Every structure is written in C-alpha cells, then in structure tokens.
C-alpha cells in the first residue's frame, strides 16, 4: 500500500472522506510503520504482531509511543489489553493536540484545518439529533437550586468522580486567539486516569479542581461537558474566540453545543444599567435598552446559553438564572 493511501485510509477510518488536511495531520504524527499498525487495530499486542508480521516486543514499544501521541486508547479485556484507534475527529483533535512532544507545526496544521475544513464538517455534525456537548451553569446558588441535578452541578461532578486531573485547553493551545488561562480543562473519572497515565494531565485534589472552576468563572470561561446524564468525562472551560464549538455559534450560528436548562433573566427594577453583564456574555445575548429611569439589561432568549457568567458579576444582583427546560432535555 502506498504511503499516501495509508494516511487517506486512516482519515476514512474516522469518517473524514475527502479531507485534504486530516491525512496530512496523520502523516505528521505517525510514520509509515505506525500508520500500518494503526490500521491493524483493534487488537491486543499479540494479535497486532501477528497481523503486521512484527515481534510482540516491537509492537508493544510502538503501541506505547502511539498511546503517548494520543493515537490509541487502551481497554482491559479478559484476553488482555486491547488497543483501538479513536473513533472520530473530536477524539483525534482532543487527544493528539495534547501529545507532549507535538511540534509547533503540528498545532499550526490543526489551526489551518479548523479554519479551512472544520466549518463545513461542523454543519453536517450539527444535523445530528443532539449536540455532543452542553453548557453547565456556574458553580453558584441558583434560584431553582432544588432543580439542579447531579450531572448539572460542577461541584458534585467533581466530588463524585473518584479521580480528577487538569489538562491544557486543546482549542486555545492551537488557536492562540486570546489570553484566557490555558491549563483549565478538567478530566474526571476514567478520562482523568487516562491523561495521568499518558503524561498529559496533572492529578488534582477536589479542592484544587474547585479552585480551577472558580478561576475559570472569574476569567469569563464557560463550563461545558458531555451531553448526557451519565459517565461525564470532562468539564471544559471554554472561551468564545478559540473553542471549536463556540466560535462557530458566534460566527455562523452552527449549534454544536446545547445550552444548559437555564436562562439568564434581568430584574429591571434592580438593574443599574452598568453594562457588566453585556461585557461578560460570551454569546452576545445581553444588551442595554432604554427604560423609564435609564438603561437596563435585556436578555436575548434565543442567544442565551444559560452559563450564568452574567449572574456572578452583577453588582446589583439583578441577574438570575431561571429554569426553562425540563430535566429530560439532557439525554440519558
């Protein structure tokens, strides 16, 4: 098989038929031998050695390298440790960008992909029944606190995860469009263990993780997690400039992330019209309107993602979050 076909076939394994840049990303991160081994997965080291005609020891050494690069994942099975490729583009993006030895050129090629090919692919992905991710409200008391469920509560997710680690934000690592904090993406449960083993994550105590949550909110970052009620693997802290989802919402209206079940609401009687909430909203959902006694905040319900960043910085406590969607809005 010609080298070019190897990388094209790897791209097709993650449904990226016709992409010009995904094969080039594979070419940059995997040599020809590694590419052939990837195409032979899934399997144990023994099975992959038999398929590729290599010694088991050599295959194990290659798999360790591929694991560190983020190109394979491990699963402990009765027959032994099974290695598999990531299943889609998002896993390729999130895992390989954190490759500790990644050259700047590799990140630059990802940046080029996000600019040239990602928007068109995202339009197709946005046609799925539900987005892959969703917003979680800020870690603050809410008016409808009794309706906050365990998988919507940042603190409870962290405390009940069993293991938590922090990684760099892959989007900001590539895009470099803002000066927001970089090491703020939280991995929980199995994802934390994976990143610690791979050398891409730093283990945290619960208190350290909650401090990162606080710092992220202060910096104007939005909490985002998997769009399902079980098996949360991450709590990303996202900005509107670099995030692979939010940047498309802002620029094209492509919805790759669900809002939370809550929505911001302004109390006009308490609002002083200072504009703090307007500056804090990453989605341009808040503006000032003229009222009888001056300007007051107005929330565009169609744009509001229910993150709550406006609530925690309102000096008059005029902003609040109200429940606008039922619990079954989040897939089980």
Strand content: 15-25%
Strand order of the largest sheet: 6-4-5-8-7-3-9
> SSE string, helix = H, strand = E?
HHHHHEEHHHEHEHEHEHEEHEEHEEE
**Averaged pLDDT, please?**
93
End-to-end Cα distance, whole Å, is 43 Å
Give the count of helical stretches: 14
- The total count of strands amounts to 13
- Computed over alpha carbons, the radius of gyration is 22 Å
Oligomer: single chain
Domain count: the total is: 3
Query: Any low-confidence stretches, pLDDT <50, length ≥5?
Result: none
Secondary-structure-based class equals alpha+beta
What is the makeup of the main sheet?
Answer: 7 strands, mixed
Q: Helical proportion? A: 25-40%
3D shape = elongated
Protein described:
The chain has 332 residues and is an alpha+beta fold. It has 3 domains: 3-89, Arc Repressor Mutant, subunit A, CATH 1.10.10.10; 124-258, no CATH class; 262-326, 2-Layer Sandwich (Alpha-Beta Plaits). It is 38% helix and 18% strand. It has helices spanning 3-13, 22-29, 32-40, 45-52, 56-69, 89-96, 104-116, 118-125, 154-159, 170-175, 190-198, 206-218, 246-252, 276-280; strands spanning 72-77, 80-85, 133-136, 164-167, 185-188, 202-203, 222-226, 234-238, 257-258, 262-266, 286-291, 294-299, 319-323. The strands form 4 sheets. A 7-stranded mixed beta sheet has the order 6-4-5-8-7-3-9. A hairpin with a 2-residue loop joins strand 11 and strand 12. Helix 1 (3-13) crosses helix 2, helix 1 (3-13) crosses helix 3 and helix 2 (22-29) packs antiparallel against helix 7 (104-116). The longest helix is centred in the first third of the chain and has 14 residues, at 56-69. The radius of gyration is 22 Å and the shape is elongated.
């Amino acid at each position: 098989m010609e080298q070019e076909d190897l990388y094209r076939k790897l791209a097709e394994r993650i449904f990226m038929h016709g992409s010009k840049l995904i094969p080039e990303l594979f070419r940059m991160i995997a040599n020809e031998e590694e590419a052939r081994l990837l195409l032979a997965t899934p399997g144990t080291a023994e099975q992959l050695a038999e398929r590729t005609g290599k010694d088991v020891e050599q295959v194990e050494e290659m798999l360790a390298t591929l694991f560190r690069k983020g190109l394979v994942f491990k699963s402990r099975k009765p027959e032994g440790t099974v290695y598999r490729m990531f299943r889609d583009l998002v896993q390729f993006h999130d895992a390989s960008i954190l490759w500790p030895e990644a050259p700047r050129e590799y990140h630059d090629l990802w940046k080029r992909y996000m600019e040239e090919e990602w928007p068109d692919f995202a339009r197709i992905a946005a046609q799925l029944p539900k987005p892959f991710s969703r917003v979680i409200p800020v870690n603050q008391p809410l008016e409808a606190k009794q309706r906050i469920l365990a998988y919507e509560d940042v603190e409870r997710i962290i405390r009940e995860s069993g293991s938590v680690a922090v990684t760099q934000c892959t989007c900001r690592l590539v895009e470099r469009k803002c000066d927001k904090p970089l090491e703020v993406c939280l991995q929980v449960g199995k994802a934390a263990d994976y990143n610690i083993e791979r050398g891409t994550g730093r283990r945290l105590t619960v208190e350290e993780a909650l401090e990162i949550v606080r710092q992220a909110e202060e910096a104007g970052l939005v909490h985002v997690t998997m769009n399902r009620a079980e098996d949360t693997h991450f709590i990303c802290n996202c900005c509107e400039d670099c995030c692979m989802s939010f940047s498309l919402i802002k620029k094209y209206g492509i919805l790759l992330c669900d809002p939370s079940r809550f929505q911001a609401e302004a109390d006009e009687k308490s609002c002083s019209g200072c504009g703090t909430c307007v500056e804090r909203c990453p989605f341009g959902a808040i503006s000032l309107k003229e009222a009888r006694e001056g300007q007051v905040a107005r929330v565009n319900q169609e744009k509001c993602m229910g993150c709550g960043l406006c609530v925690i910085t309102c000096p008059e406590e005029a902003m609040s979050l109200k429940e606008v969607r039922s619990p079954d809005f989040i897939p089980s």
